[in-house]
Amino acid sequence: MKILTVTHYFAEHGGGIESVAKQITERLASRGHACVWAATAPSRTQSKPAGAVTSLEMSGSNHLEEWTGAPFPIWDSRSLQKLRQGVIDVDLVHIHDFWYSGNRKAFSMAIQLGRPVVITQHVGTVPYRNPLLRWAMAMADRRLAPSTLGLCDQTVFISERTRRHFDGRFPYSREPVLIPNGVDLTIFTPAEQIRREELRKKWGFSTDAPVWLFVGRFVEKKGLRLLQRVCQHFANIQWCFVGQGPLSPEKWHESEKPPRLKVLPWQKPDALVELYQLADQLVLPSIGEGFPLVVQEAMASGTPCLITHETASGVSGDLPELSTCDPRAESLKAVLQRLEAQSPLDDSRRRQIANYARGLWDWNETVSKYEQLFESLCR
């Protein structure tokens, strides 16, 4: 098959949606399919997709993200011409989320040209603090979801929470399916205590105090403003933030920074797994998510997680060693105080978390489901 994947950015931008698209696209390419990926052109500090995936770089305006942190690029007319040719050249178009203008352009082109369209919907609306952004998301949710998710050849939801958000709102051309994101189980595995101590020394952390880890874009949606209000109350904790974005802890006022703070740029999987393994806790008080890939990766690495009640509703069943909070500073602080008073998990309990994750999420199984779906639509 010839498959065109469309996302707002390439994976190096650092968002979960882009990371998921990278996994699916590269794994389909490794199975012999001709894969093209259309997304906003990388900046000088980012790299394009490598290997068997052909990149189709879109250019235009990225001012909204620069001003507000909301990732909504606008592609220019020349890029849209390239996008149209990309649609013409393939058998199927795979779009990740309908929110983005370039993605909707790709959808319209595919419908006009008679190409099957699959939309993988990762999130519902995001409750931004900015009233204009909230209004825009609400309007798109009300008016654009029926004409995209409802009319595409197949809608895929990545979590129960995302599916519930759209349930009963409009008819679908075909019953939606649930395909959870996967985890690379050859990389994200737990480590024994001795190895974890070695990793702490390697990354410059002490072995005498807990390490709490955040991984994600430094934006409001991921809970950075909550952490900005709470972190300084936990002076004994070694805080590690991995990512990039306008709300970087490096930009916080000195009074808001915890005394033991390390901020790292995006890490490749081989390095990221070491940070999961050495950490005592992943802290991700995000909102407006389906179910974040970093939570899946952390659990597969044996790391307990703290997420919001809202995010936890994205997966059915009781996840082991999972803590939840409301998206309020008081709630987050109370849960963190309880976690601070607890002893670190031993190797046995960390393996229990990892084994549970391995039973739920595997990229090989996820990509096989997409491959079967795509083949059925291209017959």
UniProtKB/TrEMBL annotation:
Domain (Glycosyl transferase family) ranges: 196-354
Keywords: Transferase
GO molecular function ontology, one term from the record: glycosyltransferase activity
Keyword check for Transferase: yes
Keyword match Transferase: yes
Stretches assigned to the Glycosyltransferase subfamily 4-like N-terminal domain: 15-185
Protein name as catalogued: Glycosyl transferase group 1
